[in-house]
C-alpha cells in the first residue's frame, strides 16, 4: 500500500449530519464542528453528576494534606478550598459561554483567542496538563484495583515484590495499574453525549464509599473524629495570611484547568441554562465536601494508627487489610475499592480524555477525532500569520512576574520577598491582570471582526448549506456595521 492510500485510509470518516458541505478538512471534523441537535442531550441533573464526579474524589480528599502542609489549620484549609473552587466555578461560567451559545468546544475558543496557528500553544498546554493529571489519576486507579483484588485473593495481598527498588513501584502496584487500563479503555468508545448514566452510577458509588470510610474511621475511634490534624509549622500572622492566599490560588489553579475547558461539555447541553446551576453550586460544594471528608477521616485515623498520618484512603485501607484481614474487612474494602476504581475511571474520562481528545482533534482533524485521540475556516481568526499577537503578549507579560517565585519554590533558594508574594497570590495576579491587559490592548488595537456575533443553528441541523451561502448571509448581515477582512493568511 502506498503512503497516499495509507493516509487516506486513516482519515476520519465524515458524518453527513455534521456540516455536510465542509466534510473533514485540515481545520475541522465532526468533533470540532458545532454539536448537532441529536447530541445535545445533557440536562441540569447531568451536569450535577459531572461536577460531583470530580468533586467527591481522591483528588479533593487529599487537598487538605497540601494546604495543612503550607501551615494552615484544618478549618483554614477547608475555607481555602471553598474560596478557591468558588473562583474556579465563576471561571467555568465564563468559559462555558461558547458551548452554551454555539455548541463549540475549547479548541474553537482557543482559535478565536490565539489565532488558528497560535491556538497550538493553548492546545499544547491544555493537552500536557491533561496527560499529567491522567497519569496521576490512573496511578490512584491502580491503587484502587490493588485494594479490591487484595480483598478477593489473599495470595495477591501477600504477593512478593520482584521489581528492583529503583523502579519506584511494586509488582502488586504495577499489576493494578495495568488492570486499571483494562477497565478504562472500553469507556473511551462511549461518545460523550451518552456518558450520563455511567456518571450517575459513579457518583453514587464514590459518595457511599467516602462516607462509609468516614463512618468506619469515626466508629473505630470510639465515635469521635478526635483532634483535627494541624501543621507543625510555626508562622507569623502576616505569613499565615499570605499562605492562605497561596492555598486559595493553589486550589483555584488546580480546578481552573477543567473550568477553562468546560465548553467541551456545555456544548452538549439541551437547553442554554442547563449547565449553570451545577457549575455555580455543585463544583465548589462537591470539592469542599470531598476535602472535608479527607480532613475528618485522617484526623480520626491519626489515633487509630498511633499518630501515623495517612492522607491517601487507598493506602490507609490497604494498611487495614494487612493488620485485620477478616471476612468483614475483606467485604468492606472490596466495595470501597470498586467505588474508588469507578471514580478514577470517570474522572479521567470527563476531565482528561475527552478534553485532550478534542484538543488533539483540533491539531490534526483529518486524522484524529475524540476516540482516536484518547487512545477550512476562512475569516477573522487568521489574524496575521495565523497568530494573535495580543494573546501571546499578554500571556508572557502576565506569566513572567510569577516565574522567579515559582523557581524558588522548587529549588528552595532565597529571593526578594516581593517575588515570593507575587507567586503566593499568582492566581489573582495572573487572572485579573491578564483580563485587564488583554481588554486594554484590544481597545487600543481592535482585532478584526471585534463585536461580530453569529447565530449558527440554522446552518447545522442536517441542513446542507454551502460555504458560499453562509458567507453571503454573514456578509449581508454585518456589512453595514463591521468591516471584516476574510482573506487568506499572509503566509509563505
Automatic annotation (TrEMBL):
Signal peptide: none annotated. The chain crosses the membrane at residues 67-88, 108-125, 132-153, 173-191, 198-218, 274-296, 380-402, 422-441. It is a multi-pass membrane protein. The keyword Transmembrane applies. One of its GO terms (molecular function) is nucleobase transmembrane transporter activity. It is found in: Membrane. InterPro entries: Pur-cyt_permease, Uracil/uridine/allantoin_perm. Pfam families: Transp_cyt_pur (PF02133). Gene3D superfamilies: Hydantoin permease (1.10.4160.10). One of its GO terms (cellular component) is plasma membrane. It comes from the Eukaryota. This is Putative permease C29B12.14c. The lineage of its organism: Eukaryota, Fungi, Dikarya, Ascomycota, Pezizomycotina.
